[in-house]
């Protein structure tokens, strides 16, 4: 197994964190760093001092990488993904892959045609706690899951202005945080699609303007199996802690839950419920933040090309589109 050559475009906190995780894994060689901010490049270069440095995707591709990690504003994702794929580089992209299903489908189709590995940073799948929840489902330990609740409230909200510009972000807290919740629902329930039956969006407690973005979303969805699903997500909600990140599954045999501990963005526990009894499944600590990126790098090192499961990124985007449509 040879180590692929990897370039990084977008070197804010998330980009650098994913870079460090891949570097420490040993699965890849870091050959190029690029960001419009020279300071961000210099900070990242402390982790990869021999990597070429620049500001654009062209600078990254000049190093002829085997793969590119993209952590830029959402409006740039698909054009940059297409640019990398056309140059023969696999891609690991921050979520959301596209601002809507049409954009996501364009990227997925390009990866399929090029037979190149494409993945998005749906990082919560890689926590031990959500892994334990999936194991309960796969083992049939919950029976038939008939209801599921998913929640992600971030007390702070994003710190970059582009998140609040609909043209750049594609939306507010739903496409930023709710993308994880919808992905969890699709993944845990093994669903091919989800139908939104009702949705409400708010901005500052009132209606969302035509060019505005939501800071609170609640939606009801239904899986083809009939499972009823509720998602709720927000920015800057007065929830009494820094974050509320939870998932509950209720089945005909038992229930199960993932919950963040003490308002943490990083520490998760998982429990199984039988009647009034709760049995712990997983407790923190769990160093999970970079696992999705490391998994992509490992698969790339093993020579993996296009994965048909990547098509589910289009399904994910289509469900989010459906929630926005139902709310309007």
From TrEMBL:
Entry keyword Oxidoreductase: yes
Coiled coil: none
UniProtKB keywords: Oxidoreductase
Single Gene Ontology MF annotation: nucleotide binding
Gfo/Idh/MocA-like oxidoreductase N-terminal domain: residues covered: 5-119
Residue ranges of every copy of the GFO/IDH/MocA-like oxidoreductase domain listed in the record: 134-256
PANTHER family tied to this protein: BCDNA.GH03377 (PTHR43818:SF11)
Protein's UniProt name: Putative dehydrogenase
Gene source species: Pseudoroseicyclus aestuarii
